[in-house]
């Protein structure tokens, strides 16, 4: 590792980057920009997409490696943030798990983001947490069969979403007790929620399964806000994190221009 900065590899999140082209063209655009590895939120409109939709998505990944995929999270644009704890939508969660595992078998993807879900009006939070435990257990069993992990992500900008800090997510992990369910540390969300980012390296490093970045405030590319992204990533690498860093920012003014901070030599991994 260089004396300054870090040498962690980057993975492009194509649900938020390269939106200048349709979703099925983004992997090719990322590849042309030098990326070898990509990740997505749920790339379909429903928990159970048509077979030809799945086939088209998998085919679009030619030339890049799929490193991460979200489970179906509901209508994100309308404010939904996952089905893991959503009482009444158990079938959709189970169906999207099957679809995601099928994609993983075809692509080699071995990391799944299980968004926890918002608190629901009229529902007992304890019952939601009980359902989340069942769903995470089931998904962890299924993921373990193919050597995969789940990651649990604290979020900002979603008042009804109960996981806001790294400690919130780690408490769920401790209760669950599964080795292949880990923390997704998104530096942007944690910073916006005033979490202690230094604690990621000093207290939570053994629990981290994935890292994502965007600058804060604004959620744009590094250098547009005040967050010491490079410094925090260096601390994580020095503490033992050796995984990918997901680029999950809103590019400004466009994806190509926004990537000026990242040399092409840092956009791939052999």
At a glance:
This protein has 270 residues and is of the alpha/beta class. It has nine helices and eight strands. It has helices at residues 23-32, 51-60, 90-107, 125-144, 166-176, 187-192, 198-202, 229-239, 255-258; strands at 10-13, 37-40, 65-70, 111-113, 149-152, 181-186, 208-213, 245-247.
Count of beta strands? 8
> How do the strands of the widest beta sheet line up side by side?
1-2-3-4-5-6-7-8
Task: Determine the structural class based on helices, strands and strand pairing.
Answer: alpha/beta
Helix-strand pattern:
EHEHEHEHEHEHHEHEH
**What does the overall shape look like?**
globular
| Most strands sheet | 8 strands, parallel, barrel
Our measurement of the CA-to-CA distance between the termini, rounded to an integer number of angstroms, reads: 17 Å
How much is the radius of gyration in Å?
18 Å
Q: What level of helicity do the residues show? A: 25-40%
Our estimate of the beta-strand percent is 5-15%
Output the number of helix runs: 9
Report low-confidence residues grouped into runs of 5 or more: none
Mean pLDDT: 97
Pfam families: AP_endonuc_2 (PF01261)
Keywords: Isomerase
Family: Belongs to the hyi family.
Protein name: Hydroxypyruvate isomerase
